[in-house]
Specification:
The chain has helices at 23-35, 69-75, 78-81, 109-112, 117-128, 165-175, 184-189, 221-233; strands at residues 2-5, 10-11, 18-19, 40-43, 100-103, 132-136, 159-160, 195-196, 206-209, 212-215. It is α/β, with parallel strands linked by helices and 234 residues long. Strand 9 and strand 10 form a beta hairpin. Helix 1 runs parallel beside helix 8. The protein is globular and about 45 Å long. The two termini are 15 Å apart. The model has no long low-confidence stretch (mean pLDDT 97).
Length: 234
Amino acid sequence: RVLMIAANPTTSPVTGLPIGFWWAELTHAYWLFSEAGYTIDIVSPHGGDLVPDILSDPEHPSGYSAGDLISLGFKNSPTHAAQLKGTRSITDISLDDYDSVFVAGGASPMVTMVDDGELHAFLARAYESGKILAVVCHGTCVLLKTRLSNGDLLVKGKTWTGFANSEEQYADNFVGKKIQPFWIEDEAKRIADTNFIVNAMFKPFAVRDGKLITGQQQYSGAVTAQLVVEALGQ
């Protein structure tokens, strides 16, 4: 059984635009878990309705994500789309009910998750209780500050990935302005005793280091989920 956590919606302090989760990072992993026969619950740090980043919408006029048929199907399936309405908060969740926790990314995590101590503690408890912890794209910002019960960062001694500087620069160039309040790769490289790595721009890429699995960007949801399936199989 997998617990998927998606960010609550907010407004970007940089662009002034509404931001939320990224469709593909949630739905592609959801599809793979579903195909593997897992039970999946979608929740959020603070509960309530979830809102996607507009460019991740396969029906957005820009056509940026027009090829994302999995998200298109999820969005237009009443049964699936209903799972994004009135989500439960992590405070209502018992980790005993799950084998893995999967954190999706999007623009919102960089604002709502990066300093959310309650979420960090929840993820640390999941990890220390033996769950497989998976985090994708901008969701990996939580790993910059999530600490274990001994005070160490969860990523101490770990190899992990997240949204790359090259991808941030591409995104900024695409929209013609700065998007994120900080860049994960820059911050990760300032952490001692951790190994942050990235692959080529916008290529599916995920890394497993023990119970921690991380995916680089929005094209990495499925490969990250596949590593979770393999880890749970072991």
